[in-house]
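Go through the following before class.
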Amino acid sequence: MPPFKRSSPKVRTVKKTLADGTVKSYRYERKAPLRPRVAPDSVGALTMAYRVSPEWLGLAESTRRTYSVYLKEIERLHAEPVTAITRRTLLSLRDAIAAMRGAGASTGFLRSVSALFTWAVHREWVTHSPAHLIRPLPGGHLTAWTWAQAQHAMAALPESYRRVVVLATYTGQRRGDLIALPWSAYDGKVLRLKQQKTGVRLVVPVHPDLRAELDAWRRGATSTIILTTDRGLPWQGQHLSHMLPLALGRIDLPPLGVHGLRKLAATRLAEFGCSMHEIASITGHKSLSMVQLYTASADQERLALSAMSRLPTESTAGNRRLRD
């Protein structure tokens, strides 16, 4: 079997004006460029099938974009048989991505290939997923802000960045949902939105501190979108993610991201005694395990204090005297 195939030829027409002024048409067969043949059991065939599947099309657009970035790494092996992709293969790719782009990128890669191979198992391309039980590298989760960092940012950042921090801290929403929020979503008491990633519809009560901010912003608004750049234009997600850490560096804060404010919002709710279900009703998480990951440290301290406070207070001095 030849390694390349041609697509159907097309015809190219060229017109020329002759010396007597007449125009004559010449038709040439235009050869299509050679395209690599994809073996039916190859990685290339698998990723192509995945990208047209109902499961892929059912993902949020933002998730498809993220997965596409990381699936490019496995697609470099497009000619390899799917069954040749082993745990060792994925670990090598994970480590290489971490070395070049950081632990967070390696975690994104693992999530993407895990989704791909889970689909492959269900569709009987393979009998088991080589991504099963591969753990993310330490530091693979985006760093959460502290409340002190958020307060400093709210006091020192330029207004367009400051508003991002305020809205994210008091709503716990993802970057894409924050920058898409129109003023029509705010009625003075709540924010109503449909999350882009999950499709979950949320009604988020507006905290009095946030209400005061939103009311002031709306009085001077020149856009139908709540969050805008210093030029009054809606934020683009990647641009915001690039520019915010730079702005934070200018006020002596580490290069934190918008998603870390989502973690801060969940942590603060946990610190003030909210249950995981209550927190998920604000953040829109479908998985309580992710909420638990965000709030683990806050829950541990609160629960430990609660547990210790239940122990009765007893004097140990008498026991000491008896031993003496």
Remarks:
- The two ends are 94 Å apart (CA to CA).
- The domain at 147-307 is CATH 1.10.443.10 (hpI Integrase; Chain A).
- The chain has 14 helices and six strands.
- The beta strands are 4-5, 10-17, 23-30, 35-36, 190-194, 201-205.
